[in-house]
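Holo model, glutathione. Inputs:
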Amino acid sequence: MLSLITFPTGFGEPSHSPFCAKAMILLQMSGQTWQREDISNPSSMPHGKLPVLRANGTLVADSEFIQGWLTQQGADFYPGCTDEQRAIGHALVRMVEENLRLILVHDRWLDDENWARLGPMFFAQLPAPLRKLVPILARRSVRAGLKSNGIARMSPSSVCKRRATIWTLWGKSSARTHFCWATHRLPRMLRSCRS
Ligand SMILES: N[C@@H](CCC(=O)N[C@@H](CS)C(=O)NCC(=O)O)C(=O)O
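Output:
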């Protein structure tokens, strides 16, 4: 059976990682039978990140490649869509995953108030001696990544502007409801993925 290696549940969602939740939705949509395999340290994974699909003895890393693998097995995530609609769908997904994601990471990891609640949740499964040190080191490394990307150098109002622009564009795009998986079945699908 397929196994999805994923971060645990969090925020009342099947995973505190949006990419893991995305992979779960893709698996549900594909109709394949699968199970979840929760871990909290992805360092041994091919990209050092989650989600990863364990399929027939191989590891498929990255939700986009998981989608590709499921498509090869016969799933169609853009049923009835033209090539142009598929391209727009892909671009919208990229906007969310590459652009909005950075803001989400920024808000979760760099905002002190948010971090006070999220840090302990992210690292809850570590043994007690590491539970203090690892979050500090991990936060430092995330801050460095966001600095190199540029988002951690922006003023709070610039981050806010960028966030608002993405949500406004997302809200205006009729495409999202047709071919970005934003179907009415999503809440039900997500409920069924909880461990
Ligand atoms: N492009 C990847 C992104 C996956 C990703 O960024 N996963 C994050 C969790 S949301 C992760 O594993 N972070 C752990 C780390 O960077 O150490 C995908 O689509 O699967």
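Residues 83-109 form the longest helix (27 residues). Strands lie at 2-6, 34-38, 52-55, 58-61.
Archived with the compound record.
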